[in-house]
Amino acid sequence: MKTINQRLLMLLGMALSPLALAHNPICQCEPGSEDEIVCTGGFSDGSGAPGVTLDVISYDEEVLVPGKLEDDSRFSFKRPDGEFYILFDAGPGHVVEVDHTDISGL
């Protein structure tokens, strides 16, 4: 028969196990060659995000460049005119927005 401490530890481990599997989305964008922008997406656990939606959106909510991350978790696009942001959307709770003003070198 298990002791109370063993049961408590087992219940605590079961309660905390989903936290160990949690990972946060990450998206980084930087200037590429000429007027190109290159974005890389993934998760804080080091995993990539191939196939995840990455859209370029104007401030008036028009999708300027629809896209998905390639097999290497990268997506390149021509810099649009005007103000925009990049939306990395891996599902509920896994969304990152990168504003054009946050991209170094633009």
Low-confidence stretches: 16-21
CATH fold name: Immunoglobulin-like
Mean pLDDT across all amino acids: 85
What distance lies between the first and last C-alpha atoms, to the nearest angstrom?
66 Å
Backbone shape? globular
Number of beta strands: 7
Kindly provide the radius of gyration, computed on alpha-carbon positions and rounded to a whole number of angstroms. 19 Å
Order of strands across the biggest sheet?
4-3-6-7
* Element-by-element helix/strand order: HEEEEEEE
The figure for the number of domains is: 1
CATH architecture: Sandwich
Largest sheet: 4 strands, antiparallel
Report the portion of residues in β strands. Answer: 35-45%
Helix vs. strand class: alpha+beta
Number of helical stretches of at least 4 residues? 1
Walkthrough of the structure:
- This protein is an alpha+beta fold and 106 residues long.
- The protein has a single domain (23-102), classed as Immunoglobulin-like, CATH 2.60.40.
- 17% of the residues lie in helices and 38% in strands.
- The chain has one helix and seven strands.
- The strands form two sheets. The protein has a four-stranded antiparallel sheet, with no helix packed on it. The chain has a three-stranded antiparallel sheet with strand order 1-2-5, with no helix packed on it.
- Strand 1 and strand 2 form a beta hairpin.
- The chain is globular, with a radius of gyration of 19 Å.
- The N and C termini lie far apart (66 Å).
